Structures
1.
Amino acid sequence: MIPNPLALIAEITHRCPLHCVYCSNPLELAAANSELATQEWIDAFQQSGKLGMLHAHFTGGEPLARPDLTELIAGARAAGLYTNLITSGLGLAEARLQALVEAGLDHIQLSFQDSREDAANWIAGAKAHAHKIELSRLIRRHKIAFTVNLVIHRQNIDHVGEMIAFIEQLAPDRMEIAHTQYYGWALKNRAALLPTRAQLDKAVEAVSAAEKRLAGRIRIDFVVPDYYARFPKACMGGWGRRLMLINPSGKVLPCHAAEVIPGLAFENVREQTLEFIWRESASFQRFRGEEWMPEPCRTCDQRTEDFGGCRCQALLLAGDATATDPACSLAPAHYIVEAALAEANSSGAISQPVPAGSFVQLQQRAGGLWSYRINPE
Amino acid sequence: MAPPEDTSQPRLAAGCRWGPEQKAGGEENRMILFPEGAIKLQGTGRQVLERCDGQRTFAEIIAELQSQFADADPTKIRADISQFLEQLRHKRIVDY
C-alpha cells in the first residue's frame, strides 16, 4: 500500500508582478485563461484532506493575483488543511490581510530579494522592496506564523550576514535562506547566479554564526546549492512519495518542473481524482521506489536518503531523466556539474557583486547579464 | 537560549495548532501542525503540550504531571519536560 501524500502544492496562477531572475517556474507558463476556477480548487482541497494531506502550500506565480484567494484559503481550511501562503506581498494591504487571517490563513512566507533596496528591485525586476518592509510590520500584528524567505546567489551571497541582520529586524519566527535551484529561469541565468566555492564557504560560516545568535528566537533554515554538495538533494522527498503539485491549469505533477520530462503524460484534476492520480497514474509511478534506478544508485547506501536525486535535473543536465542526478559526486554525468563549477570559479566568470547603483543603472547593466522572468499570456 | 522558568507560561507559537485527531491501532494520536511540518503526539508528550495553553505556568504543568505519574521520579519528570519544551521552542513550535 502506498502511503498517503503529506502536502499539496497549489500553484494557483503563474501570473506574477515580479520578474525574478532565479524563478523556478517553467519557461512555458500556464496561460491566465487556462486557470482552474474557484470551485475546482475547493474541490481539490476537499480531496486532499480526505487523502490524508496535512498542508496546502499556496504558491505561483503570485497567489495574490487571484482575486478569489481568500475563498481558496477558507476552502483549504474547511478541508482540514494547514494553509501556507508563499508570496511576494505585492497586492496585499491591511484589509485583505485581515480577510485572509479570518479565512484561516496559518502561515505567511514573504520573499525578500536583498537587504539593499536597489539590489532587491534589480533582482526582482520590479520596485517591490519598500512595500515588503511595510507589509512585514502589518503581518506581525496578526497571530499567524511568519517566515521570511531569501534566495541567495552569486550577486548577493557576499553580504548574507547583512541580509540576516536586516531580516532579524522584521521579527519573523523563521527565515529560510535558500540557495537558488537551477530550474526554469534560474537555469537559463545560471552563469550569473552560481557562486564561487569561496563565496559559499564564507556564507556557510556567516549563517552558522547567525543560527547560534538567534537560537530560540528566529529559526534559520538554510539550503545550500546542490552543485557543491557530495550527494544530491532528496528532491520533493522522493518522487510520488510525499507531495502532489497542482499547476494553474489543473495538471497534477510530482514536482514543479516535471513537465520538462519528455514521454510523461500528466493527468488533470478536472478529469481524474487525486486519489487515482496518486495511486494509479503512470506519471506518479514512473520514478516511485527503486525499480527505475540505474547504477550507481541501485546499490548505493544513500538511495534511501536521496532517492537518486532530482529527475528533472537529470533530464535538464544529462538529457536523461533516468540518470543519477548529476549533482551527485558518484554520478557518471557529474562532469557536467563540475564543468559549471569550474566556469563559476574561473577568472573569466561573470563578475561578482555589482556595486549598487541606481535601479535604472542596474537594469541597464542587467541587459547582457540575465533574462527576467516574463508573464504568461 | 534558556529552559522555561517556574513562572513561564508555555503556549503554542503563532501559526502552530492542533490538527485533526487520528486513530491508529487503538491509540489516539493528535498532530501539531506548524509551518512546513507536523509532529504526531501521543502519551506524555501530548499531555504536556495540551497543558501549554498560555495560562498554566511551567510549575503548574509539572505538578500536574508529577501527580499523574506518582510512580515516576519527580525530578526526572521535571528535567524531561523542561528539555522537551526547550527543544520545541528551538523549533519555534512553543513559546514561553
2.
Amino acid sequence: MTSRILLLIFLWATFSSETMAAIRVVATTPDIAWLVKRIGGNEVDVKALARASDDYHFLDARPDFILAVNRADIVCRVGADLEIGWLPKILEKAANRKVMAGGAGDCDLSRSISVQDKPKGPVDRSMGDVHAAGNPHFWLSPLEMGSSALEVEAKLASVAPGKAAEFAVNRAKVQEELKTLHAKIKERLKPLAGKTVVEYHKDFSYFCKDYGLKSMGSIEEIPGVSPSAARLGTVAMEARKSGVSLALATDHHPKNILEKFKELSGVKVAKVPSSLADPSASDAYEKWQNELADEVLKAFK
Amino acid sequence: MKPSVFILIASFFLNFEKEAFALAEGTGLKFSAATDIVGNIDSKDEAKYPRRLDLREAEFGVYGPIDHGFDGNLFFAAHNENGSYNVEVHEAYLSTSKLIDNVRLKGGKFFLGVGRLNQFHRHDWPFISSPKAHETYFAAEAASDTGIQANVLLPFIPIYTDIGLGITNGWTYGHSHVQGTRPIHPTHYARIGNFFPLGESGGLQTGLNYLGRHSRVDGEMRIFGFDAIAKWRDGKTVTWLLQSELYGRNLRAPGAAMERTYGGYIYAQRNLVGALDFGLRFDGYTLITTGTRNLDYSFVPIFVYRHSEFAQFKTSYQVDFEKRAHKDSQVSRAFQVQAVFLLGDHPTHDF
C-alpha cells in the first residue's frame, strides 16, 4: 500500500502540469505576467503574485509567493524599487539560485526602459515614498511596456536558448501591437492634448506623457502619505486656478479623500484600475488601456 | 560590550551617515536602527509596571553580502534591564540561501527559529507587552543562543511546507548574560511551517513547534506548541490580523517532580480607519501538576496608530488576573504607551 502511494506521489510530481511546463515564470504584477505570456507563448507557465487591486508598494512576503518563486525558472519584476518591501524577503526565503540577483532568471523590466522622475538631489524618508531609482509606474505606457519587452525576451532566451528565435518574433509582434495601440489611443485623446490633470499619486506620469496630457502634480503632498486637510484645500484651489479638468486615481486610493477633493475643487475624479485584470487574455492590455482612455474622455465631456 | 563602545559605533554610522555609506559603496552593506520607547502611565503594580517612560530598547544593525555565497548579519541592542542599559550583541550570524536550492542555513548567535514572536524583534510585534507564556517559555523578547539552523522548503509538495531544524549550545536558555554550564543535551528545536490562502486577499500561516534542552542546573525541558497567524489586506491596509501561539511545557528540575504547564495567547486586530487599528489580546497560563485549579490570565486592549511604515504608536491597557481555586482576583494593571521608529534600510513586509 505504502509503495503504491509513493508511486502515485512520484507520478503526480513528475507529470503534474506545473512540472510539465517548459519555463515557469513568476511575475510580480498582472501586467508583467501578460507581457511574459505574449512573448513566451505556450513555452511559459506564468503566475502573477499581485492582483490588479493590490497596492504594489505594500504587499507582504506571503509564503505562497515564496513557494511560487521557489519553483520558478524566472522572476520578472517591475523594478525601480517598487517591490523593495517584499520581494527581497521572498527571494531570500525561496532559496532558488536561478532567480536570485545575477541568476539567469533574474528579470528586472526597469532595466530596459527610460525611467522618469529620477530625483536629482539626495532622497530621504522625510520626502515620503520617493523611489531613488525613479517612478516605477511605467506599465501604464504602451511605449515603455514595449521597451521592457526586451528584458523579458532576453531572460526567456537565456533560459531556453533553443526558443530564442520564437521569443524574438513574439517580442517584435507585441512591440508592434503596443505601438499601434499607442497611436490609436493618442488619436482618441488628441482633442485633450495639452489639457491639465492632477494625479492622486504619481501613477499616471507615463500615461500623461504618452498621450500629451499635462500633469499638475499630485494631490498627495508627500508620496505615499494621505494628504492633510490643509493640503487638500491648497491643492484644490491650485487645481481650480490652473484649469485642471480631471483628477486621476487608482482603485486603491482613498475614496473619501478623493470625494473631498472633488467637493473642494469642483474637478471631476476618475478612479481607474492601475493594472489589467486578466493576464491570460491576449487583448487584456489593449482593453485596459482603452478603459483608461474611455474614463478620461468621459470626464472631459 | 561597554555602552560607550556601542554609542561610539552607532554614532559613527548614524552621525556620519554619508561617510558610512561611502565606505559601504560597492559592498551591499545596509544599516538599520530601531528604537522602542515604552511607558507605564497608570499602574497598579509598581514592581511589574513602574510608572515611567523609558527607552526599552535601541537596536542597531548592519547586514549585507559577505561574498557570493554568504550574507552577514550583526545586530547590537541596548536593553533597559532594571534601570541599567546592557549593550549586547543581539544577533550575529552568517546565513545563506545561495548554496543549496530549497535550503536556508544560518550559523552564529540568533533568535531561535521557533514560534511566531520568538522570531521577531520586539519592536516588530503587534502589541507592547510580552504574553506571560512567551516570557516564561522563551524570554521577555526572544530566546537566543549560538548554534546552527537549517530550513528546508519542501519541493514537489503543492502546499508551502518549510521545515526548520536547529541546534544551539544550550549552556544558557532564554535571554542570559551569564556563561552558563555545559548541558547534558544542547538546545534543539524543530518547526514545521505551512501556509493556506484564505480567499483572494488573506492567508493563514501555521507552525508546529518542538524545543528541548537538558541541563544539569535547570533540568530537562520540552516545549510543544502551535502558532498561527492570519491576515487580510486591502491595498496598503491590513484589515484583519489574527495571531495566536499555544504551548505546553514539561519541566523536570533536578531532584524535583515533573512540572507541566500550558500557556498561550490569542490576539485579534481590526483596522478601524486609515492608519488606526484596534486589537485585543487574551493571555492564559496554567500549571497542571499542582492539583489545584489555577490560571493566570490577562486582557490587553490596544490601539495602534501607524504614522508610516517607519513610525508607529501604541497604547494599551493591560489587566492581569489570577484564578486560584475558583476565585478570580486582579493582580496588576497598567496603561501603557509605546513609540517605535525605524531608521535606515527599508523594513521587510514579513507575512
3.
Amino acid sequence: MSASPFPLIPLCQLPAGETGRILRLTGDEGFCQRIREMGCGEAALVTKLSGTTMSLCRVRGMRLALNHRAAIGILVEHLPLAPR
Amino acid sequence: MAAAPRPGSEGADPALPLPAHIAGPPGRRRTPPERMPVYALVGKPNCGKTTLFNALTGLRQKVGNYPGVTVEKKVGETYSQHGHAMRVIDLPGAYSLAARSPDEAVTRDVLLGRRADTPQPDRIICVVDACNLERCLYFVHQILDLGRPVIVVLNMMDLTARAGLEVRPAELEEALGVPVISCAAVQGRGVVELRLAMSRRELPLARHSWTVPAPIAPVVAELQASLVAADGRPPLIARAEALLLLTDQDSVRVAGSTPLSAVTGAVLENWRRRWTGQGTDWSGTLIKARYEVIHGLCREVIRRTGDCGPSLADRADALLVNSGWGWLAFAAVMAVMFYAIFALAEYPMNLIDGVMADLADRVKDAMEPGDLQNLVTSGMIGGMGGVVIFLPQILILFLFVGLLESTGYMARAAALMDRPMSRVGLHGKSFIPLLGSYACAIPGIMATRTIENAKDRLVTILVAPLMSCSARLPVYLLMIATLLPGDAVPAATKAGLMFLMYALGTAGAFGFAWLFKRTFLRGDPPLMILELPPYQPPHFGEILRQMLERAWLFLKNAGTIILAISIVLWFLSTYPKHPDPAASPEVQIAHSFAGEAGRALEPLIQPLGFDWRIGIGLVTSFAAREVFVSSMGVIFGVEGAEGDTAPLRDALRAAQWPDGAPLFTPLVCLALMVYYVFAMQCMSTVAVVKRETNSWRWPLFQLAYLTGTAWVVTFLVYQSGRLLGF
C-alpha cells in the first residue's frame, strides 16, 4: 500500500460532509470481502453524510448505514476537498 | 425505451432450441425439439425485480418453496409478442454470486445450474437500479461471466433525474453488447420493450470482456481446468466458479450442496498457502479489478447533472437515523401501527367472529345433534375460527410492513434500532422480525430470512415468541377482567397491567438474546452495513398483492396445522364418554382424556397456584393460546366465551378449590398471565421454527427453555406473592 500524504482515520471519525478515500480494511476476512463486494473496497471514495455511532455515507452513488464496529474497521485518508 | 436492437438479435420465435449441454454434441444434433424458454429474473433486493415479475406474469404465478430450504420459489408464465409461452423464475434478491444467506445461495445455485429441482435458465434478465448503477453492475458483471444470454433492465429510470443523474442505456448496451432496456416498473414503463427483447429468437452473448489480474490469472486457469476435469462442470460455469472460490475464502459455502472434488480442493489449498506466505490479498485484488472495470463503464454511461452536495434524502436520513427526532418519528410510527393492529382490527375481527358463530349455528341446525355435529361445530369451525379471527391483525401488520419497506423507512428504522439491539448482541435487522412478532410470531420468524449471519438469525428465531403476540390478548383480557372486575378500577390501571406483560415479554426476549449470544451462540458483536434505499411513494398495488400472498400462506400453513390439532383436542375432550349421557359439559370434560391429562398435570402445576381445570386449559391451548379462553368456557359451563367475557369472568371468580378456597385469586390471575408471557403455547410456531431451521433440535430446545422459564418465573411470582400475604 502506498503511503498517504493525508492522515489515516477510521470512517467513524471522518467529519460529516467530508470525503475520504478508503485505504485499508481491517478485521474479519469475511467482513472485508463483503464490504469490498458492496463497493467499499480500497481506493473507493466515501462521503460521510452524518453520524458517529451510526455512520451514514455515500459510496459509489449508494447510501449506506454502518454501525460503529463496522465503520471503525474502515480506514480512510481524509481528502481536503470533496471531488466534484 | 429499448436501445436499438443488435444485429443478429432479431427474430420472432421465442421457442428455443435446447441448449448444447442438454441437446448433446452439435455433430449428433438433429432438428432440436422446441420447448418453453426459461428466464431468470435476478437483481439486488429492492431493485423492483418482483414488480417486474408481476407485470410480466400477472396472475399466472406459482409460489412454493425450493426443496430442502425455506426460500420462496416464484415461477410464472408470460407470452412473447407472438403468443408463445415463456417461463419466468423470480430468483431471491442477491448482491453477488458470493452468497451469504440462504436466499442468495439459491440464486447462485440456480444460475450455476446446481439445483436438480430447477432448470438452469436459458436466459437471464438482470434488473438493476439505475440510480445505483455502479453497485448493481458488480452482480451483472459476475453474471456475464457465465456466458449465457443476458438482458439488462435499467429500472427506476424515472428517479434518476431526481438523483441528479443522466443514465444512457444505449451507451451501456454498446459497451456490454447485450440488450439494455430502460424501465420504470412501478409505472409499467418498459415492460413492453422487455417482452419484445425476450421474444427474440436469438440474443447476443456479451461482447464485454475483462482481464483477470495477472497474478491471479494462472490460478483461475488451473482451478477452471480442475473443475472441468475433476468436478465435471461446463467450462464457463467452471470459470465463474473458480472466480467465486477466489472471491470468497469459505470454499464450503461457495460449493454449497455440491462439494468440491479432492483434486480441486487441493489446487485451491495449494494456492492459498502460497499466497498466505507471500501476503497476497487475492480476494481484494479480484474484487478491486472488477470494480475498476465497472467504474470505467460507469464513466461512459452516467453523467452527473445535479449538485454533489447533501440532498433532501441525505438531510432526512441525518434526521431520522442520527438525531433525537428519529426516535420521536419512530415512536410515532410504532404508536400508529400498534393502534391499528389492536384497535382498528377489532371491527373485522368481530365480523369474522360473528360469521363463524353464524356458520356454527347453521351447521348445528342442519345436522342431527351428536358427536359428528359437535366435531364440525366445536372442533373444526371453532378451531379454524380461532385462526381466521387473527387474519385482520396479520393483514394490518403486513400493510404497515409493506408501507415502511416501500417508502424506504424500514431500513432507517433498522439502522436506528441497531444501537439498542447490539447491546444484547442482536443485529439491527432483527428489529423487523421482532416487531412483526407482536402481531404473530409466525410471520416474524419468517422475516428473519434477511439476516445473513446464521447465529444472529437463530437467536432472533429463538426469542421471537417472547414478544407478546395477539393470541395472548384474549388470555390477558380475561385475566385482567377477573383480577380487576367492574368499572371501579380505572382503565389506565388495566392498560398498565397489560403494558407490564408486553414489557416483561420484551425484556425476556432481550435477556435471553444476551444470554444465548454469550453462551452457545457466541459470536462477535454484529457488524451492520445496511444499504439505505431511496425514499419513494408507496406502491399500493404491490403492497396489496404481498398482503394477499402472506394471508394465504398464513391460512395455509397455520390453519391446516391448527385444524388438525383442534380435531385431536376435540377428541381428547370428548372421549371417553361419561356413563351418564345427561352429564354437564364440566363433568364430561373431567371424565375425558383431556381431564385425565389435567389431573395428571396437577401435581406439576399446583406449586404455580393452578388446579387440574387450568391444567386442561394449558394443555388445550397448546394448539393456540387463545384456545385457553374457550376451554375455560367449556370447563366452567359458560357458552360464547369468545364474545362477552362477563359471564365467564364471574364463573372464574366463583370457582373454588375442593376446600372452598377461591381458585382465581388476584395472585393466580397474575401468575397465569406471567405463565403465558413466557410459555411456548403455540403448535404453529413450533412447526414454523422446524421449517426455518430445518431441524427438530431448535424447536424442541425452544419449547423446553420457554416452558421451563414460564414455570420457574410463575413459581417465583406465585410463591413470592404468597409469602408477602397475597
4.
Amino acid sequence: MSGLQLAGVTKRFGSITAVTDVNLDIPDGKFISFLGPSGCGKTTLLRMIAGLESPSAGSIRLDGEDITPIPTHKRNIGMVFQSLALFPHLNVWENISYGMRIRGAAKADRKKRASELLELVQLPGVEDRLISHLSGGQRQRVAMARALALEPKLFLLDEPLSALDAKLREEMQVELRMLQERLGITTIIVTHDQREAMTMSDQVVVMSTARIQQMGRPLEIYRNPASAFVAEFIGTSNLVKVKVVSATEVEALGEHFTVDNMADGLTAGADAVLSVRPEEVHVLPPSHVGPNQMDGKVTFVRDVGASVETFVDCGDLTVISLATPKDRPDLHVGDAVKVELPRESCVVVKP
Amino acid sequence: MTVAGTIVSDDAAQRRGLIQRVFVGGIVDPLRRYPLGLYPTIMLGVFFFVPFLIMIDISFWHRVESRTYERAFELTHYARFFSPLFTAHLWVSIEFSALSSAFCLVVAVPFTFFLSRFRRKPQVVALVFVLCVLSLSEVIIAYSWSVLLSRVAGIPKLLFDIGLLDSPDSWFPGFWAVLCGLTYFNVPLAILVLYPQSTRLDRELTEAAQTLGASPLITFWTVVIPLLWKAILACFILLFVFTMGAFVTPLWLGEPENTMYAQLIANQMLSRNNAPFAAALGVFLVIVTLALVAITFWLGKERSAVAGGRR
C-alpha cells in the first residue's frame, strides 16, 4: 500500500490532548492542507508525521511501512519550518547541501546539486550568499530547496508563508503548487489561512479542537460544509440559527425556508444552523414576492471596487450579500429591501 | 598657557595640556554624558586600578638584605623571570589552565545544551544544584578531592575492594589530581556562563538538521557546536583566566613540580618576605593573562570571519 496512512493517531501532553484519534489516508503525489485555527493540533499532527513528536496512540505508515517507531533522521522527509530554521553559520549552498554533507557526498557534487535546486526554486546565482543577506522570500526558497535536496518521500511545510507579506504570499502559493505538480511529491502543508489551503491543495483537512472536522476537495468543503465551524472557517458564511421542520424545510425568525441540503441525522424539531455563502444571497426590491425571502434594511455598503458587500439587518440577524461590480445593486444605507436565500444554496448543518 | 597670570614654560604647558586632554576627554566627558558610568569607574579605579599601580610601583623597588626593601627603580626582579625555575612554573600554570578549561568545556557544553532542552521544572532544579556547587569554596573542593583520591577512603580503595585494582594506591598528590580539582571547581561556572546562549538556540534548527538525516550526535557537532562557538570561546577565556589564579587546589592536591604561579607569588610574599619580586611576578601574571585573552579573542575573530565569509 503506498501513500501515507494515519490510524487512530492521538497525542497527549500531560492532561491536554492535542490530537484526538486521527485517521487519514493520503494518496501518493497529492497536495494536502491541514487547516484550522491556532491550537487545533494541526502542527502537532505534522510533527508526528515528521517524527519530531511521538504519538501517544495510533500508527503512521508510509509506503506500507510502519514508521511510528522510526526516528526523524531515518524517515527521509523534507520539512520547511515556520521559522524556516536555516543554519545561520552556513551559506546558501552549504545550507541546501547539509543533508548530503551528513551522508559524506563530495564537495563538487554538493555544490552542483545546490545549484540545480536553486534553479528549481527559481533563485539561481545566490549559492555563496549568507542567509542573513537574503530577503524573506529568498529565504523561503532556500528553505524549500534544502528540504527537497534529498528527494524525500514526503514534503512537509509548517506555516511556511506566514512571515511573508500578503502579495508575496499569494505568489509563493501559486509557485509552491506548480513546483509540487512538477515534482509529484506528496506534500502536506499546515496553515490557518483558508485561501492558502484552497489555492494549493488537492485535499483540505479541516481541524479544530484536536479533531478532524471535515476532509475533502476544497470546493466540496466550501459548498458542503459539514458543520457550522467549517462553514465559518472556510470562507465567510451567513449562519442562521434554525429549527428543522421537515427534511426540506426549516424555520427561523418566523419565516420558513425551503432547503436542498440537509445534514444527516437532523430530524424535525432539532436545532440546526443554516449556512449561505454571501455571493449566493440576492438583495431584491421590497416589493418583490417569492419564497425564501426576508424583509430587511441596508446598514452598510462596503464597495472595494473588485466586489461589493451589502450588510442587511433582518431583525436579530445581519445577512451579508456579495456582488461583483457588474451586478452592483443601487443600494444605500437605510434602504428597505428583501433578501433571498436561494434553496439550492442553503446548507443546513448541525450547530 | 597662562594660569592665574603666571607664565608657564611651553614644555610644561604642553604636558599639562596633554594630561588635561586625556583626563577630560577620556574620563570626565564620557562620565558627564553617561553619569551612571561613575559607579563602575570608581569601583574599578579604587579596587583594581589603584592597587595595580601600587603593585607596579613596588615591583621596581630595591630589596635590602633579606628582610626589607626601599623605594627605587630597578629591573632586577623582572630579570629573574627568565631563570628556568620561573618559566617552568609559568608553563605549569598555562598548562593547567588550558587543560582544565578544555576538560571543563567537554563536560559543560553537552550538559548545558541538553539541560536547556529539558522542560522548565527540571531545568530550575538542576540550575539550583549547580549554583550550590558553585558556592563551595576552593578549599572544600580540594579537600573533598583529596579524600576521594585517597588510599584509605577514596575511589582507589573502592576499586581495590571490588577487585579492579591490585593495590589501593593513593591517586594524590599529582598532576591528574590537580587537574580533577580545577576542572570540578570550574564546571558550575561554565554551565552558568553557557546556559543563556544555550536556551536561546532555536529548537527548530536542531529539528531541521534531524529532518535532513542528522542523528542527534551529528546534529550536536554540525549545528549546536558551531552556533555556540562564540559562547564556548568566551567561556574558555573566562575559565582560563580564573584558573591562572588558582592557589589552594595545586597547593593541596599537587606535588612541588605542580606549583602554579599564584603559589610562587604567595611564597615570595609570605615566606621570603620579598614583596618587590612578588609584585613583579604579579604584574607579569596580569600581562601574560591579558596577552592570552587578546590572542584568544583574535583567534575567535579570525575563526568567525572564516565561518562567516567561507566561499
